[in-house]
Design brief:
Shape: globular
Distance between the termini: 22 Å
Order of helices and strands: EHHEHEHEHEEEHEHEEHHHHEHEEEH
Number of domains: 2
CATH topology of the largest domain: Aspartate Aminotransferase, domain 2
Largest sheet: 7 strands, mixed
Helix content: 40-55%
CATH superfamily of the largest domain: Type I PLP-dependent aspartate aminotransferase-like (Major domain)
CATH class of the largest domain: Alpha Beta
Number of strands: 14
Strand order of the largest sheet: 2-10-9-8-5-3-4
CATH architecture of the largest domain: 3-Layer(aba) Sandwich
């Protein structure tokens, strides 16, 4: 693979040079005034992008860590897990491993979770929390989060915690309007930073639940997060290179306009879908297609592993099918700092490569 290869993976994604340069900022102490100024700037920017008056926590971990934090701090006893792919399953596995009474609501891979199914499950069960993966990168499905959040609001004191790993900063997510108690993401997807850092919005209800939660551990205790958040600090030494990069990215995104960024992502998605339907097929259910990653159905039965290997040699990296879909699908991301020219060059190269493969 060329060191200048362009990534169209669902994560990690392409990182532009300006972001890499921002990561070279001076080392500062995580209890210093300079750190607090940087922290406050990032938190303010993320809150603006997520349309929230609530708190923003920063973690030097991938989003899986914050998923476990949400499970340990927010779920009182029993959680409903909306599963339409591998990462919804991850929520469930984490909850079970943390000793929660986790119950799956599963649909066939490629299908979306429907609001009416959530309503029925909540009416029949005794759940205090719903866990959902907004954008399922394993299948290319984007679940109808707004409609599902409306259903959850119909039930008394049911929290909603959201894996927005591959949707946050890729589409508009009005956290407060939708009533999301935890909305979390890592930065190597639509934020277009290198992996190793994550973000979460946390509601008053989520923090209140943390106060009575048992077995929260130490590193991911929301009460500890809040204690240091009020000082504009992280609970322990933070990855300041990521914070410099995130600060730079927030500045650039807000200057360009978030709506412009979201519209660019939709245009790229539409172009990839058009190409996929002309040449292969779409794996995800119509009406629930992801804005940030397209899962292409391998209807021609090409050798996906060979395709990926040849493309990598040409400087283009796309994703194989995930888990049980390996070889049956392949995935093309269209998020972050990619642009339409990047997409056109990729699709042209894929077409050429498939012809070469015979």
């Amino acid at each position: 693979m060329s060191e200048n290869a362009k990534f169209f993976l669902p994560g990690p994604v392409y990182v532009r040079d300006e972001i890499k340069e921002a990561m070279k900022g001076a080392t500062i102490g995580h209890r210093s005034k300079e750190f607090s100024v940087l922290y406050e700037k990032i938190v303010k920017g993320v809150a603006e992008i997520l349309h929230t008056e609530g708190r923003i926590y920063l973690s030097s971990s991938t989003a899986t860590g914050l998923m476990e934090a949400a499970v340990r701090n927010v779920i009182k006893k029993s959680s409903l897990h909306l599963i339409c792919g591998s990462f919804g399953q991850l929520w469930y596995n984490i909850a079970k491993s943390c000793g929660k009474d986790a119950v799956p609501l599963e649909v066939e891979w490629g299908k979306a979770i429907k609001p009416e199914a959530v309503r029925s499950a909540l009416a029949e069960g005794n759940f205090d929390t719903v866990c959902i993966t907004h954008n399922e990168t394993s299948t290319g499905v984007m679940n109808p989060l707004k409609e599902i959040s409306d259903v959850v609001k119909e039930f008394d004191d049911v929290a909603l915690i959201v894996d927005a790993v591959s949707s946050m900063a890729g589409i508009d997510i009005p956290v407060d309007e939708w009533g999301l108690d935890v909305c979390l993401a890592s930065v190597q997807k639509a934020w277009a930073l290198p992996p190793g850092f994550s973000i979460a919005s946390v509601s008053d209800r989520a923090l209140e639940r943390s106060k009575s939660a048992q077995n929260k551990g130490f590193y991911f205790d929301f009460e500890s997060f809040e204690k240091y958040h009020l000082r504009s600090q992280t609970i322990s030494t933070a990855s300041t290179p990521h914070m410099y990069a995130l600060s730079k990215q927030i500045d650039d995104m807000l200057a360009a306009g978030m709506e412009n960024r979201y519209e660019k992502i939709i245009r790229m998605a539409e172009r990839v879908r058009e190409w996929a339907e002309e040449n292969f097929g779409l794996f995800a259910e119509e009406g629930y297609l992801s804005a940030t990653v397209t899962c292409v159905k391998n209807t021609k039965n090409i050798d996906v592993a060979s395709l990926l290997n040849i493309l990598s040699g040409k400087g283009y990296v796309i994703g194989d099918g995930y888990g049980k879909l390996k070889g049956e699908t392949f995935r093309i991301a269209h998020m972050g700092d990619l642009n339409m020219n990047d997409i056109e060059m990729l699709l042209e190269t894929i077409d050429e490569t498939i012809m070469e493969m015979g």
